[in-house]
Amino acid sequence: MSAVVNRIYLYKGYERFWHWSQAGLIFFMLFTGFEVHGTYEFWGFKTAVEYHIYAAWALLVLWAFTIFWQFTTGEWRHYIPSLKKVDAMIKYYTYGIFVHAPNPYQKTTDNKHNPLQRLAYLAVLSLMSPLVWGSGLFYLFYGVWQPTWLGGYLPLDVVAFVHTAGAFMFLIFIIAHIYLTTTGHTVFAHIKTMITGWEEIEEEHK
Hints:
Strand content: 5-15%
CATH class: Mainly Alpha
CATH superfamily: Transmembrane di-heme cytochromes, Chain C
Strand order of the largest sheet: 1-2
Shape: elongated
């Protein structure tokens, strides 16, 4: 059998822009956030807090534009969860990929994400994001709600713990995400796709 590589235009310009902008802001927030947490010292506590807050607002603005773009273009449909072929994808990532088995899922312009990716994005949107943003807003506006009745039931150290736990969840997700970018037909194929928008799909022909 011989391999034939076909190219499809998978990711539009704005899609690539918000992906890389989001990635940069999240990395920056992790870096400043762990400095605020006391893991290391680079800018200093006060400056790290300020930068962290600026990046958080920037990311919220980016998400607002992106949500608008997703719904006006119909791109949100690519994130609808599906269990179809999820068992095949689990088998592929845990075993098949190491023995050079063919990927059971092929991307198309109508289906950009495999079922495991869709479930991962569902976890990000329904669990990790509310956890981080909810605790982050409580953290930021602590002086507003702490004097109220809620302050007696929600100590600041609990808010800080939840926020840090959410940050570690995002860090684990990013590590897994970066690893999976290396699982294309070449190590940098998926990264190249997110830069150019063009996906190279390798198909086997007899």
